[in-house]
Amino acid sequence: MNKIILLAVLLFSGYSFAAGDYCKLHSDSPEKIIHVDNQPQWFAKVRVSGDYIFYIAQGSGGNHLLSTTDKNDLTRDVKIDGDIDPVPSPDGRILTVPGLNFYLVDDVIRDKKDVKPFFVDGALNGVYQSVALLKIIEPDVRHYRVVTDATGSQISYRDYEIDFRASPPKIRALIPVTKHCPGKRLSTIMISKTGRYVTAYDLATNTTKIFDMVDMGEGRCRELMDLGYGTGKIEFNIGTPRAGELFNFEDSDERLAFHLDYFGSDVGSYFCGVESDKSKDVFTMDLEPVPANRSGNWKLKNTNLRKLFSESLLGSGGYYPSFFGDGKLALVFDDADSYSFRFFDPEKSKPYEFFLPSPATTFEEAWRDLASMPQNWQPRFHRAAAIGALWSQVCLPEDTDQRKDITAVGVTSYFLGM
């Protein structure tokens, strides 16, 4: 009987399913899957060329280098130097590790865990560093900016010039260690690929924000956009170089990717992989500048929101998206303690629109109290919650945690995943 009711509601709502398919959630098909033995935690970043992924392997201790082309299980995934945060530059030439250690990526690929840094800058300490390519002076002389949280919940950065014509490369700091957005309490700080923007989770508002990193001025901290919700680390795109270009600055930083937690969250869970009582999905969003106002200030607005993956089950989901140079991206996927990197093309994913009731709201409470939800969303929420609740009754075994702990977020997530 339950199945008949569910199918009737689905058909009435304009959804069509083949017989027996109504328990399957919609999921974008990855173009490629690479399984790994250990859970990727805290950081995972691809090299722009697409041939390698750098990540922290939980349980095996420290930084790993994963080849996306090597099919030999014994050599594909190897330990490299450092314990945390292996972050490559946007052009794929250098790798940074907290300390602050600089490595040539080619040296890392060759020497693995025995690689030695060509430069160490102890003045810019801290973790969660990110790297921008600011300028190409000559093909082998480039300016970079490295951002960290060295001062504790604040943005610290330093600019460097690296001359790759020398062996080892010559590097010099262009400015002292500098603070940005003083006084703000920020977390998961990430600079964009060209250094135009810096993003962070604002601990005062519990939302992710984008700040200006170009027109800064003395101690200036100009907010360009508040996403309105908290996310995991923001990842910016890298523009595909046109003929004769070494790096496409113009088309970079126009799209961002991030993951979101479902079923309740706190700031700590945005750092890590999927926990047993959480679910994560990956989204992309395009950025457009808003014309300057009378004071000359400009802002950013978001468009073309897309959802790349839809699991919506406790303990499963995708996280840590990272862009290749061709616009595609890789993300970590955790499915009941089975781990993999999955490759997607955001252009093939469906447009998406958020409506998220409070994560603490129970299914029953959501029906009674819709005061905090925009009025035009209320009937949509009721329909989604009803369909999601019926789906959970039919498709989830009675003794599962998902069935026992179903919430308003849960049932609407099931509906949106169909």
Indicate the topology.
Elements: H1 2-12, E1 32-36, E2 40-46, E3 52-57, E4 63-67, E5 77-79, E6 87-88, E7 94-97, E8 101-104, H2 105-111, E9 119-120, E10 130-138, E11 141-148, E12 155-163, E13 170-173, E14 178-180, E15 186-191, E16 197-202, E17 207-212, E18 223-226, E19 235-236, E20 255-262, E21 279-290, E22 299-307, E23 316-323, E24 329-335, E25 338-344, H3 363-368, H4 378-395, H5 401-404, H6 408-416
Parallel strand pairs: 21-23
Antiparallel strand pairs: 1-25, 2-3, 3-4, 4-5, 6-7, 7-8, 8-9, 10-11, 11-12, 12-13, 12-14, 15-16, 16-17, 17-18, 19-20, 20-21, 21-22, 23-24, 24-25
Helix pairs in contact: 1-4, 4-6
Features:
globular; 418 residues; mainly beta; 6 helices; eight-stranded mixed sheet; 25 strands; five-stranded antiparallel sheet; 13% helix; disordered C terminus
Residue runs with pLDDT of under 50 for 5 or more positions = 1-20, 264-268, 356-363, 366-370, 402-409, 413-418
Enumerate how many helices there are, as a single number. Answer: 6
Q: How many distinct beta strands? A: 25
How helix-rich are the residues, as a percent range? 10-25%
Shape designation: globular
Task: Give me the Rg, rounded.
Answer: 22 Å
Biggest sheet features:
8 strands, mixed
Q: What structural category characterises the helix and strand content?
A: mainly beta
Spatial gap, N to C terminus: 21 Å
How much is the average pLDDT?
78
- Strand fraction band? 25-35%
Can you characterise this structure?
The longest helix has 18 residues, at 378-395. The protein has helices at residues 2-12, 105-111, 363-368, 378-395, 401-404, 408-416, and strands at 32-36, 40-46, 52-57, 63-67, 77-79, 87-88, 94-97, 101-104, 119-120, 130-138, 141-148, 155-163, 170-173, 178-180, 186-191, 197-202, 207-212, 223-226, 235-236, 255-262, 279-290, 299-307, 316-323, 329-335, 338-344. The radius of gyration is 22 Å and the shape is globular. The strands form 5 sheets. Strands 1, 19, 20, 21, 22, 23, 24 and 25 form an 8-stranded mixed sheet that branches. Strands 10, 11, 12, 13 and 14 form a 5-stranded antiparallel sheet that branches. α1 packs antiparallel against α4 (378-395) and α4 (378-395) crosses α6. By secondary structure, the protein is mainly beta. It has 6 helices and 25 strands.
